[in-house]
Design brief:
Elements (H helix, E strand, L loop, with lengths): L14 E2 L2 H8 L5 E7 L4 H16 L7 E7 L6 H6 L7 E4 L2 E2 L10 H14 L16 H5 L1 H4 L4 E7 L5 H8 L3 E2 L1 E7 L3 H6 L7 E6 L4 E3 L7 H9 L5 E2 L27 E2 H15 L5 E3 H17 L4 H16 L4 E3 H9 L29 H19 L10 H13 L3 H14 L6 H19 L24 E4 L2 E4 L1 H11 L5 E2 L5
Parallel strand pairs: 1-3, 2-3, 6-8, 12-17
Antiparallel strand pairs: 2-4, 4-5, 6-9, 7-11, 9-10, 13-14, 15-16
Helix pairs in contact: 2-4, 7-9, 10-14, 11-12, 11-15, 14-17
The protein binds flavin-adenine dinucleotide (FAD).
Length: 514
């Protein structure tokens, strides 16, 4: 079934962490925690979720040593904690507090992920979780005295080359089983190789505490065959281990009533929510802004102060933030200092600021993880490119890239969906500098957005009630579509005219703003 708020549900074989369970579960734990910090609005997190779920199922048996969990950083209640863990982009995978080389390509195989977990665990020996078994290769001495020091009936030796993960995987797979131990032995361990007459790598041998041994008979020298064989040995039983499921407290969500929205209009609630989320949530993930990020923030706010057609108090707010940023000397800005400006508290006055919350109207999805913030960000930047054409109408533009450059900088420095940012940067690097006028800038963004729509159409990030169309569809703009030699083509002059009307201040509606 569809998850209530985030991308995962209590039926998934992983732990759903919330602000009150995250720190107590993960820090000071005797096992390793593999946590995916995600944002439910981030398209790549949506693509990645099936992989993460499949990984959790694949290594469920490892759970005394390795737990798989998720945290939704888009949930307002979790935002502070995500900040504390230093999360600045989504998805981010961490092993306890150690950041894990993130193979976030959803096409990446479960096997690669599994192996990089082992590599990550081994790289951080200093934080080796007590519940994790030793995974290093066995020595001659260890094997010689094994049954004297370990009270088990069986010892499985997996002979393999140094690069192979098989021995470590089977060791972890068998963790919950009693009366059997698993060790890997490297092909370079000549004495053992000779003693057992090993000729193939990988291959495995079963040693019994009565002194006998034999090769484990399997159809294929592979993980599931070994595990299957070992789990069924007489006297081998699954131990009393109970996986950590405790933090799965029911998730509280209040269903958001649908707000009727007209697709031919732009809503101020979406735009103001974008401003709030961009400045107070995305930028806030960086406790100190330096270098490129300072520049990106200054450019973004400068463009907002100049072109955002907001309500007067919002315009004042943006201008005061802009003034403050312009006066910043030096190349670092602690977020704590910026925050004071963004909350804009004036002595004895009610704070005349943006709402501290998000309200999606035109950008409301049919489920909480659809649309929302990325939709509002596109809307905001289209609006800004169009506003720039109104400012410059008739005269030669000073800088046709003013708005696009600010968007590019913002997305590069702050947009939490990091793969989205990479894709966008790819498009920008390819052709943004060919833009010669403010009109071309508005059209450039329109056509690149359509490319993104085409790429995402039919994927799991598409809200079924808001299919990713080539926009504007004929019902919004008939003249935008023309036919040349029986092929459907855009009439760009008509598109430009439409963009200017659609993203004009008189088409912005105040429904649901406070
Ligand atoms: P959106 O695509 O967000 O569009 C919002 C609104 O803008 C639409 O409802 C429509 O009114 C209008 N609109 C649509 N097309 C155009 C157009 N061509 N010109 C002008 N207005 C238009 N998601 C991923 O999964 N992978 C990515 O790589 C990715 N990259 C992104 C890069 C950027 C810079 C941004 C801002 C978002 C990105 N996203 C990505 C998110 C994705 O593009 C959508 O924003 C998200 O899936 C929500 O889609 P939506 O249906 O609300 O419509």
């Amino acid at each position: 079934g569809a998850p209530p708020g985030g991308l995962y549900s209590p039926g998934d074989p992983l732990v759903l962490l919330q602000v009150d369970t995250l720190e107590s579960s993960v820090l000071n734990s005797s096992s390793a925690w593999l946590v995916e910090f995600y944002a439910s609005w981030c398209g790549h997190c949506v693509h990645f979720a099936p992989t993460w779920r499949a990984l959790a199922a694949d290594i469920q048996e490892w759970s005394p040593a390795v737990n798989v969990a998720v945290v939704d950083c888009a949930d307002i209640a979790n935002q502070k904690t995500c900040g504390k863990f230093g999360i600045t982009g989504f998805p981010t995978l961490k092993v306890n507090s150690v950041c894990f080389v993130p193979p976030t390509d959803p096409g990446d195989s479960i096997q690669n992920l599994r192996q990089s977990i082992i590599t990550n665990l081994e790289m951080h020996k200093e934080t080796w979780p007590p519940a994790c078994p030793p995974l290093e290769p066995a020595s001659v001495e260890e094997i010689r005295g094994f049954f004297q020091t370990n009270n088990v009936t069986y010892l499985a030796l997996i002979f393999e080359t140094n690069e192979s993960f098989l021995g470590r995987e089977v060791t972890l797979d068998m963790l919950q089983y009693e009366n059997v131990a698993v060790r890997r032995v490297l092909s370079s361990e000549e004495e053992l190789v000779k003693k057992y007459g090993v000729t193939a790598f990988p291959s495995s041998f079963l040693l019994i505490n009565n002194g006998t041994f034999s090769r484990i008979p399997v159809q294929m020298e592979a993980r599931s065959f070994y595990t299957h064989f070992l789990q069924r040995l007489p006297g081998v039983t699954r131990g009393p281990y109970m996986p950590t499921r405790a933090p799965d407290t029911p998730i509280k969500t209040t269903p958001i009533p649908r707000k009727p929205a007209d697709r031919s209009k732009v809503y101020m609630a979406d735009l103001e929510s974008a401003l709030h989320y961009a400045l107070r949530v995305e930028v806030a993930r960086f406790s100190v802004l330096t270098g490129e990020r300072v520049r990106a923030l200054k450019d973004f706010v400068a463009v907002l102060a100049k072109y955002f057609p907001g309500r007067p108090f919002v315009q004042n707010f943006l201008r005061s933030v802009d003034r403050w940023l312009r006066n910043v000397r030096g190349s670092r800005i602690p977020y704590s200092a910026l925050k004071l400006v963004l909350t804009n508290r004036k002595e004895g006055q009610a704070p005349a600021v943006l709402s501290n919350n998000v309200t999606w109207v035109g950008c409301q999805g049919s489920e909480p993880h659809f649309r929302g913030y990325p939709c509002s960000l596109w809307t905001l930047f289209h609006l800004l490119t169009v506003q720039a054409t109104r400012h410059h109408s008739g005269q030669k533009a000073e800088d046709p890239l003013e708005v696009l450059g600010a968007m590019r900088g913002y997305v590069q420095s702050f947009f939490g969906c990091r793969e989205c940012a990479q894709h966008f940067e790819g498009m920008a690097a390819e052709s943004m500098d060919k833009v010669r006028s403010v009109d071309e800038a508005a059209l450039w963004l329109w056509s690149r957005h359509n490319r993104v729509n085409a790429r995402l159409a039919g994927t799991e990030t598409e809200d079924p009630q808001f299919p990713k169309l080539q926009w504007p569809p004929p019902e919004l703009c008939h003249p935008c579509h023309s036919v040349v030699k029986r092929r459907q083509v855009w009439d760009e002059a008509a598109v430009l005219q439409f963009l200017k009307a659609y993203f004009s201040p008189i088409n912005i509606f105040l429904n649901y703003t406070e």
